[in-house]
């Protein structure tokens, strides 16, 4: 008999806060598995990091010798004497990213300037959707570009760790018909094991749910029970990988560094991890952005140091790993009255790892004079973000996107690899 004090499944899910699991979403863009071609015998791994909020790329790859840049940014602009790391005669790295200097010199860092969407929106939500579904302006597409890759290349015997996101909810880029594991940080700690043990009362041995609560079976049948069991088993294996894994370097103490450390353990375990999605929020710097100091610098230092530790930790595995750092749009060219910047248009991307044509700036740079700016206020978009996505899929995973992979768009070539 069910106790009056026993939680229902719905109440338990809500109070436990467990959002990890294999997630499936309906697809509006199906691709034939026979329509793609491989260019590598063994795909590498791709780690996609999304800087949410519209990161100011102009203060990451800095045109530190440009007078127009300094005129437009009198308090947040960066000069050589501020510690800008010189990359070439025109551009330098923000001092917060100084840890990447060795990656640049070893040709494992390839920045792409003036990247973005052709769509005019300055809405975070629309811009993120358009970029993660890789279909600017087309709201009918509801599958992520990474999930389309996974679905098109699926094969029997693939690892349960083939694709994962270290987030409470799957990034849109990973949503679609192919099941992807979402793992919140709570699952990596001791309390995560306790939560899984409680869930086994619902999905455990014998196929039953909590005594007296058969609503799940009535509503969803065996499919939900099976999915729950698979999720629990996979998360337990994931926790086991983390417990057995080791790190050869010290990571920064923040959440981002800890997530990267976990990813490195899974990659080094040889468990077949191929696609990773990871978010880093807080880049909407309308106020207090600062230059060599301020919120932007603090986050960049964490981003730079954490990713450098990740690269060092991977060792030779970095040779077959690509890290893509992206954001929905850039910021206004001119700083505002609050030592910040507002929603812009053109931005940029970073591609790091083995096989990239690093040690050089990619993309077409336009003048920062009024004639070269978008609507007289933002960086222009001279490289469509889908060109970079296609290049990364091909260069890191050996996947040649078939016609229709990017709806109504045929990507150009950037020679990133």
List keywords for this structure.
417 residues, nine-stranded mixed beta sheet, single chain, 14 strands, disordered N terminus, alpha/beta, three-stranded antiparallel beta sheet
Break the fold down into its secondary structure elements and pairings.
Blueprint: H1 9-16, E1 21-23, E2 37-38, E3 45-51, E4 61-62, H2 67-72, E5 85-86, E6 92-93, H3 101-105, E7 109-116, H4 124-132, H5 145-152, E8 163-165, E9 180-182, H6 190-203, H7 215-220, H8 222-244, H9 255-268, E10 275-280, H10 295-314, E11 321-327, E12 347-353, E13 383-384, H11 385-397, E14 399-400
Parallel strand pairs: 3-10, 3-11, 7-13, 8-9, 8-10
Antiparallel strand pairs: 1-9, 2-14, 4-6, 5-6, 7-12, 11-12
Helix pairs in contact: 6-8, 9-10
